[in-house]
Amino acid sequence: MHSLNRSSTRLSRNARLAVLSALVACGTLLAMVQPAAAQLVDRTHQHIVATIPNDEVCGVPVTTTVDIINNSQERLAHSGFPLF
Protein backbone atom coordinates (compact mmCIF):
# COMPACT_ATOMS: atom_id res chain seq x y z
CA MET A 1 0.00 0.00 0.00
CA HIS A 2 2.91 2.33 0.62
CA SER A 3 4.20 1.86 -2.93
CA LEU A 4 0.82 2.96 -4.32
CA ASN A 5 0.92 6.07 -2.18
CA ARG A 6 4.49 6.89 -3.30
CA SER A 7 3.66 6.52 -7.00
CA SER A 8 0.70 8.89 -6.68
CA THR A 9 2.95 11.42 -4.90
CA ARG A 10 5.56 11.10 -7.64
CA LEU A 11 2.93 11.51 -10.30
CA SER A 12 1.65 14.59 -8.55
CA ARG A 13 5.18 16.06 -8.34
CA ASN A 14 5.84 15.21 -11.99
CA ALA A 15 2.55 16.80 -13.02
CA ARG A 16 3.40 19.95 -11.06
CA LEU A 17 6.84 20.06 -12.63
CA ALA A 18 5.35 19.64 -16.11
CA VAL A 19 2.84 22.46 -15.54
CA LEU A 20 5.55 24.72 -14.13
CA SER A 21 7.82 23.98 -17.11
CA ALA A 22 5.01 24.75 -19.54
CA LEU A 23 4.27 28.06 -17.79
CA VAL A 24 7.92 29.09 -17.87
CA ALA A 25 8.16 28.20 -21.57
CA CYS A 26 5.01 30.18 -22.39
CA GLY A 27 6.24 33.16 -20.35
CA THR A 28 9.59 33.11 -22.13
CA LEU A 29 7.91 33.00 -25.55
CA LEU A 30 5.58 35.84 -24.58
CA ALA A 31 8.51 37.94 -23.37
CA MET A 32 10.29 37.39 -26.70
CA VAL A 33 7.23 38.21 -28.82
CA GLN A 34 6.25 41.48 -27.12
CA PRO A 35 9.30 43.55 -28.19
CA ALA A 36 8.91 42.29 -31.75
CA ALA A 37 5.29 43.51 -31.75
CA ALA A 38 6.35 47.11 -30.98
CA GLN A 39 5.96 49.55 -33.86
CA LEU A 40 9.16 50.12 -35.89
CA VAL A 41 9.88 53.85 -36.15
CA ASP A 42 13.41 54.15 -37.50
CA ARG A 43 16.03 51.82 -38.94
CA THR A 44 19.60 52.98 -39.59
CA HIS A 45 22.73 51.42 -41.03
CA GLN A 46 26.06 53.20 -40.67
CA HIS A 47 29.41 52.09 -42.04
CA ILE A 48 32.24 54.12 -40.51
CA VAL A 49 35.88 53.73 -41.53
CA ALA A 50 38.59 55.70 -39.73
CA THR A 51 42.21 55.57 -40.91
CA ILE A 52 45.06 56.82 -38.76
CA PRO A 53 48.18 57.25 -40.94
CA ASN A 54 51.69 57.38 -39.48
CA ASP A 55 50.63 55.65 -36.26
CA GLU A 56 53.32 54.00 -34.16
CA VAL A 57 53.06 50.69 -32.28
CA CYS A 58 56.10 49.65 -30.20
CA GLY A 59 58.33 51.93 -32.24
CA VAL A 60 57.11 50.50 -35.59
CA PRO A 61 55.34 52.91 -37.98
CA VAL A 62 51.95 51.49 -39.04
CA THR A 63 48.71 52.64 -40.62
CA THR A 64 45.74 51.86 -38.36
CA THR A 65 42.28 51.34 -39.83
CA VAL A 66 39.14 51.06 -37.70
CA ASP A 67 36.06 49.65 -39.48
CA ILE A 68 32.69 49.94 -37.69
CA ILE A 69 29.26 48.79 -38.87
CA ASN A 70 26.35 50.03 -36.77
CA ASN A 71 22.83 48.68 -37.35
CA SER A 72 20.10 50.03 -35.11
CA GLN A 73 16.32 49.90 -34.90
CA GLU A 74 14.11 52.18 -32.85
CA ARG A 75 10.68 50.95 -31.83
CA LEU A 76 7.80 52.53 -29.95
CA ALA A 77 6.25 50.85 -26.94
CA HIS A 78 2.49 50.72 -26.51
CA SER A 79 2.85 53.72 -24.19
CA GLY A 80 4.44 55.77 -27.01
CA PHE A 81 7.93 55.92 -25.52
CA PRO A 82 10.85 54.79 -27.68
CA LEU A 83 12.51 51.42 -27.09
CA PHE A 84 16.17 51.44 -28.04
Characterization of the model:
With 84 residues, the chain is α+β, with helices and mostly antiparallel strands. It has two domains: 1-37; 39-84, no CATH class. The protein is 43% helix and 45% strand. It contains one helix and three strands; from the N terminus they run αβββ. It has one helix at residues 2-37; strands spanning 39-57, 60-76, 82-83. The model has no long low-confidence stretch (mean pLDDT 78).
Which short descriptors sum up this protein?
three-stranded antiparallel beta sheet; alpha+beta; elongated; 43% helix; single chain; 2 domains
Give a quick precis of the structure.
With 84 residues, the protein is of the alpha+beta class.
List the helices and strands and how they pair.
Layout: H1 2-37, E1 39-57, E2 60-76, E3 82-83
Antiparallel strand pairs: 1-2, 2-3
In terms of structural class, how would the helical and strand content be classed? alpha+beta
Shape: elongated
SS summary, helix count:
1
The termini sit apart by: 61 Å
Radius of gyration: 28 Å
Q: What oligomeric arrangement do these chains adopt?
A: single chain
Order of helices and strands: HEEE
Report the average pLDDT across residues: 78
Poorly predicted spans: none
Sheet with most strands: 3 strands, antiparallel
Strand order within the widest beta sheet: 1-2-3
